[in-house]
User: What shape does this take?
Amino acid sequence: MTASTTPTAPTPPAEPRATAPTRARRVGREIAAIVSVGLAGALIFIINFGLSVDSGADDTTLRFAGIFFLDLLLGLLAVGLVPLRRYVPLTTAILLAVAAALSSFAVPAALLALVSLATHRRTRDIAIATAVWLVSGAAAALLGLDLIGAPLAPVDLAITLAVTALLLAVAIAIGVSVAFLLSDDASYVNATVIPIDGGQSAKY
Assistant: This one.
C-alpha cells in the first residue's frame, strides 16, 4: 500500500522589495521636488515683495513686517510639508491651499500638492481641494491679508479668482495626464496616424 499525499497549495511569490538604487532614486526625486518648490517659492516671495512696495505698501509699519514674516514662515512650513503629499494627499493639499492664500512663498508647494492629488483621479478630493483654494484666496483678498493691506475691488477680485481657477485647472490637468500615462490605459495609445480625408484613402 502506498501512503496518500495531500496536495498543498503553491506558495505565492514574494513581492519584490525596493532595491537600494530604487530607494535612492525616490529620495533623489523627493529632494529635487523640495528644492524646486523652495527656490520657486523664494523667487515668487521676492517678486511679490518688490511689486507690493512699488504699489504703495508701507514697509516701515509693524503690520507690513508681520505679514512679511508670516509669508516667509508659512512658505518654509509649506515646503517642509511637501513630502506628506504621498501619504495624506488630500489633507496636505488642503493645508497648503490655505497657506498659499496667505503666503506667496507657499504657492509652488501648494500647486505641487494639487498636482499630486490629481494623480489619484478622485473627483471628490480634487473638488474639495480646489474649493478650499478659491474660498481661502477670496477671503484673504477681501480682508486685505497681504503686504499692501487693501481689500480687492469686486472687479479685481473676479479677475484674480478667474486667473487662480485657470492655474488650478492646469495643475489638475497635469496631474490627471501623468496618472493616465502611468496607467494601464495608456497601453492602448499608439502612434497610428488615422487620415481624415472623407474616405479618399480607402480606394488605395
